[in-house]
Amino acid sequence: MPVQYYIFLSIVLFCIGVMGVLMRRNAIIIFMCIELMLNAVNLLLVAFSKMWADAGRVDAGGAQIFVFFIMVVAAAEVAAGLAIIVMIYRNSQSVDINIMNRLKN
Amino acid sequence: MSLQQIVFGVLSIISIISALGVILSKNPVTSVLCLIVTFFTIAGHYIMLNAQFLAVVHIIVYAGAIMVLFLFVIMLMNLNAEIEPQKRNWLKYAGAISGGALLLVLLGALREADVTPLQSGSTDIGLISNLGKTLFNQYVVPFEVSSILFLSAMVGAVVIGKKEA
C-alpha cells in the first residue's frame, strides 16, 4: 500500500484542524483543533516509521519515540491550557476568543 | 483491492467525517464526541501500521485522559449554542477558504512524492520491548525532562486554577 495514502490522510486532517482554528471562536474548540493537528503529524510519523522499518533500518523506532513525546507534551499543554480557559471563563463568563483582546490593554 | 486497503479506506472516511464534525457542530459536547471517534480511528491506523504500543498509549492518553478533561471543562461551564456569536460571517468563509487553499497547496506539492510503498508484512519495531530499549538507551534525558515538564504543568494548572487570593 503506498505511503502517499497516509500522507494525503494526514494533510486532510491537518487542514481540517487549521480550518477549525481559523473559523471557530470558542477557545475550547480551538484547543481541540490543535489536538487534531498534532494527531495528523503523529500519524505521518508512524507511517514513515513503518516505511523505514520495511526498508530494514534498525533505528526506525525513533519516529515512534517522537510520537510518544508529542503525546506527553500535548497532555501537559491541555492541562495548563484548560486551566487558563477555566480562569478566563470565571472572570468573564465567556470563552469567546474575541474577548481576549482585552489582554492588550 | 486488498483487505488492507479496504480497512484503510473505511477508517479514513470515518476519521475525516468525524474531524469535520468537530469543526462544524454547534454544540461543544458534540465536538468532543466527534473528536473521540477520530482518535479511535487514528488508533486503528496505528494498529495497521504495526505500532501496537502507540495505539494503546494513544487510546489511554487521548480518549481516556485528555477527552475526559475536555468534557469535564465543558460541562463545568454553562455553554450553549447562542453563546458563540454568529456575527461576522465573512471571517468564517475566509478561514474555510484559506484552509482549503493550504490543503490544495500541500496536496499538489506532495502528489508526485516518490516514496517506497509499505509492505504488508508485520514488523516488530513497534512492540513495547523494542521501543523501551530505544527509549531508555537513546532518549533517557528527554524522558526525564518530560517528567519535569509534567510536574510543572500540574503545579501550574493548580496555581492558575486557584482563586486569586
UniProtKB/TrEMBL annotation, chain A:
Segments passing through the bilayer: 6-22, 29-53, 65-89
Principal location listed in the UniProt entry: membrane
Top-rank taxon: Bacteria
InterPro entries: NADH_UbQ_OxRdtase_chain4L/K (IPR001133), NUOK/Mnh_C1-like (IPR039428)
Catalyses which reaction(s): a quinone + NADH + 5 H(+)(in) = a quinol + NAD(+) + 4 H(+)(out)
Gene Ontology terms: biological process: ATP synthesis coupled electron transport
Role noted for this protein: NDH-1 shuttles electrons from NADH, via FMN and iron-sulfur (Fe-S) centers, to quinones in the respiratory chain. The immediate electron acceptor for the enzyme in this species is believed to be ubiquinone. Couples the redox reaction to proton translocation (for every two electrons transferred, four hydrogen ions are translocated across the cytoplasmic membrane), and thus conserves the redox energy in a proton gradient.
Family per similarity comment: Belongs to the complex I subunit 4L family.
Protein name: NADH-quinone oxidoreductase subunit K
Organism: Chitinophaga agri
From TrEMBL, chain B:
Reaction catalyzed: a quinone + NADH + 5 H(+)(in) = a quinol + NAD(+) + 4 H(+)(out)
InterPro entries associated with the record: NADH_UbQ/plastoQ_OxRdtase_su6, Nuo/plastoQ_OxRdtase_6_NuoJ
Any matching Pfam family: Oxidored_q3
Transmembrane segments: 6-25, 32-49, 55-78, 90-110, 139-160
Keyword Signal carried by entry: no
Keywords: Cell membrane, Membrane, NAD, Quinone, Transmembrane, Transmembrane helix
Subcellular location: Cell membrane
Domain of life per record: Bacteria
GO annotation, cellular component aspect: plasma membrane
Enzyme class: translocase
Keyword NAD assigned: yes
Physiological role: NDH-1 shuttles electrons from NADH, via FMN and iron-sulfur (Fe-S) centers, to quinones in the respiratory chain. Couples the redox reaction to proton translocation (for every two electrons transferred, four hydrogen ions are translocated across the cytoplasmic membrane), and thus conserves the redox energy in a proton gradient.
Family of the protein in this entry: Belongs to the complex I subunit 6 family.
UniProt name for this protein: NADH-quinone oxidoreductase subunit J
Source organism (scientific name): Chitinophaga agri
